Amino acid sequence: MSQDAEYNAAIEFYNRHSGEVETEDVYGEGFLRWAYGNPLGRLTVAVAVKRLWFSKWYGWRMDSPKSRAKVAPFIWDYGVDVDEFADSVESYSSFNEFFYRKLKPSARPVDADPAVAVFPADGRHLGIENVSLADSFYIKGQRFDLEAFVGDAALAREFEGGSMVISRLCPVDYHRYHFPVAGQAGPVDILAGSLRSVSPLALRRNLSILWENRRARTLVDSPEFGKVIVMEVGATCVGGMHSTFQPGVVQKGADKGYFSFGGSCVTTIYQSGALRLDADLLEQAAAGREVYAKMGERCGVAVRPD
């Protein structure tokens, strides 16, 4: 397959619930392919789309009362399950209120085993066994710059050789994110950056988007897993990353925050030897695919010392 064909291939993922490989229905696919695959599109991204003002402007539009008219068509077009909602559809006064809706607690049960780490969000998850050695992120030959991503050389050294889960949320997903492990959570550190798409259509061409975009970093000291980094990554048309927790003791599955309109991702990094990722994550990553799963479902287990 040529490089252009790899860049432009359909996005496939493994659905843990159905056991099938499926093709993603990409929201705004035509624009994304133009913006990241066309020279004029890339210029537009550089001049306007990646700028913070553009996403703030789009977020403002999604907060306006007029945006409420988009809710019902969106639910219909993407088959969103309204039975999971904590509030009625009629209660949302804007599209953004619908977008970062809360769900009934029963809609996302959290694996109760203390030795189990869970996905922090609904979405498509890429499991990386060793972040220091991997060279296949969405496409062959891409290496991850851990130091640039976490924004701290000393912290990066603590996580060398560790495992990572990139949990990518599409606009059609539930957009609140949660703690993947229990422990003592520190404050949120905001790392400045631009706002470009985190769709594989963009990341295949430039993985550095992940460490050039705006990020929100939290350290969790877990009894079972040691130090864990939980990092939200902003993206185009994400009006904001809104933290809802207070530093201190947190439970696995507890609310951490929510994204305003747009797709984005939450990245969880574990220290070397702390987590054994589930087999389906490793198998699908080897094939260049993410795994679709929901918040609260198991992604791996703690490695017990001998």
UniProtKB/TrEMBL annotation:
Which InterPro entries does the record associate with it?
PS_Dcarbxylase
The UniProt keywords, alphabetically, are: Decarboxylase, Lyase, Pyruvate, Zymogen
Instruction: Tell me where on the tree of life, at the top rank, the source sits.
Output: Bacteria
Recorded hits in Pfam families, A to Z, give: PS_Dcarbxylase
Q: What is the official name of this protein in its record?
A: Phosphatidylserine decarboxylase
Organism per entry: Coraliomargarita algicola
